[in-house]
Amino acid sequence: MPRNALAGLAMLMLAVAPATAGPDEPVLRITGRIADGAAAFDLDALRALPATTLETSTVVTDGTHRFTGVLMRDFLDRLEAQGDHVTASALNDYAVDIPLADFRDYDVIIAYRMDGAALDRADKGPLWIVYPRDDHAALQDIRYDYRWVWQLSRLDVR
């Protein structure tokens, strides 16, 4: 294979390969109405917070899975968040507004593990907002399905 073709192939592979954050790089940035105005967390910092585990099904996977992560209401309390809603954004710029009431009413987590394995960017990770949908009939409504933001990268409290 000619040298230029190999270089082109290498560039293409880099362009489509899933990017991974280094161990000290922030994976979640929080802005808006929080105590310091802005915060950033790497995976180690999130994993150092008290963890919660829940088992639930999802609309995008088969069966029931065990998710581990940070309870969203505790996380936002730690940041002294004030407001009515959070805009959650993904790495692909998908964004959705989530009422803060969801986090008071349900044990929603920022998951970083599924079935004991770290969530990978190639498959919903490194962070995924997960609702305990099997525990509450109300969460079977499609409105909640849009709030399961995978590849979560930003929260803006408003």
Average pLDDT figure: 88
Low-confidence runs (pLDDT<50, min 5 residues)? 1-21
Measured as a percent range, the helix fraction is 10-25%
Give the DSSP E fraction (strand runs of 2 or more residues): 25-35%
Q: Based on the structure, what is the oligomeric state of the protein chains?
A: single chain
Query: Radius of gyration from the CA trace?
Result: 17 Å
Output the CATH class name: Alpha Beta
Question: Span from first to last CA?
Answer: 55 Å
Structural class: alpha+beta
CATH-scheme architecture:
Alpha-Beta Complex
Describe the global form: globular
Tell me what the structure shows.
The protein is of the alpha+beta class and 158 residues long. It has one domain: Oxidoreductase, molybdopterin-binding domain (Sulfite Oxidase, Chain A, domain 2). The protein is built from five helices and ten strands, in the order H-E-E-H-E-E-H-E-E-H-E-E-E-H-E. The protein has helices at 3-16, 43-47, 72-78, 100-105, 142-145, and strands at residues 28-32, 38-41, 52-57, 64-71, 85-90, 95-99, 109-114, 117-118, 128-130, 152-157. It has a five-stranded mixed sheet with strand order 2-1-10-5-6. Strand 5 and strand 6 (95-99) form a beta hairpin. The model is unreliable at 1-21 (pLDDT under 50).
